[in-house]
Specification:
There is one protein chain. The chain has four helices and two strands. It has 83 residues and is mostly helical. It has one domain. β1 and β2 (80-81) form a beta hairpin. The radius of gyration is 12 Å and the shape is globular.
């Protein structure tokens, strides 16, 4: 996923959110491309949460973390992939 490094942070959140909306997005190649971002995105989101001052950004980050956890894609506490 090297090509995503050039994208703005909010676009990375969008792509990651869409990738974790379902346990296995259709088509399957999409999941294989987006899911590995979770191991990098979760620590990034937690760091961003502790440093941001914007209430809207904090709310968005908390929502993304909850979606990742509730949909069973990642264990947010241990940064591990569940599926």
């Amino acid at each position: 996923m090297v090509y995503m490094k050039g994208l703005p942070l909010d676009k990375r959140y969008d792509y990651y959110y869409y990738g974790t909306r379902a346990k296995r997005p259709y088509p399957l190649w999409m999941a294989d491309g987006i899911a590995p971002m979770g191991s990098k995105a979760i620590p990034l989101l937690r760091d961003k949460l502790s440093t941001t001052n914007s209430s809207f950004e904090k709310m968005t980050i908390i929502y993304l973390l909850s979606v990742m956890s509730v949909h069973g894609c990642y264990d947010v506490k241990s940064d591990s992939e569940l599926f």
